[in-house]
Amino acid sequence: MASRLRRSVPVTINDVLDGHVALDLECLDRLYLHGYLARLQVGGQVVQFLNHRGYPVPSPACLQQIGDAFRRKVASFAQANHIPVVPLKAAGRNIEVMRRYLDRAAETGRSQVAAIGVAQETQRVFIARKRDTDPGKCPQFSFEKTDRRVTVFYFYLWDAGFGPAFIKVCTYCPWPVKIWVNGHEWAKQQARKAGTGFTELSNGFAAADDPALLQRICDALQPGTIIVFFQRWLARLPLPLGPADQQGGYWWECSMAQVEVSRTIVFTAPRHARAFFDALVTDNLDLGRPDTLE
Fold it and tell me: How distant, in Å, are the alpha carbons of 279, 288, 290 from that of 294?
């Protein structure tokens, strides 16, 4: 008695998704950006900057004065605005430490500095070396970059447009900055302003009343949006540089450090999620095989 073999047709990811998805959303997730001073990247530019500041002899003492003044500004800013100053550990999860301050700020619905974190971190900063010159003349210094463990300030923000965020500023020249924002949190704020309902996850969306509108909101986050956010907060925060430096061409610009892109797929029933992962594994097992290459 002859038996028949039935050839099964493999189920692809597209087959699983078709008709079984309640929400399929692409959105920028965590975004890390560097803030840097384009005119303060090499040693000779440090001398030019200190000349711009009016120092007759460019020296490490001048940079120390700027750093000390910055620390005093931060302390005065925190005291005047009743902002908590929180020591941070290098290996700790800072966002969890700051969560209660951010939640408290979010309840007000008002853009504000929720807390200021203080940490010791390794940064690429300028150090000075004394040149061999005539002892009877003014000392001369050269400047070069090296890694040093220095103080940094984390300004944890709650922003009406972006939700939770932070801007980190180093206390040593060239005062590098780091910016962190979250695209999902920005989209949540914009969706609330648009009046469209959604169910949120801790970092994303579980459901939306109008998925197409929510996708358009996510797509609207552009580089210019982040730059406006950054420059707006620079105008509010205590900084090592001021308006005269900005007019002289010494101000922070942004560059990308890390960009995370998320795709959220919510199925209409749990069983479809299992089928999706099975199909995903099967599809990836075939990648790169000679019979699949064209």
Answer: 22, 10, 8
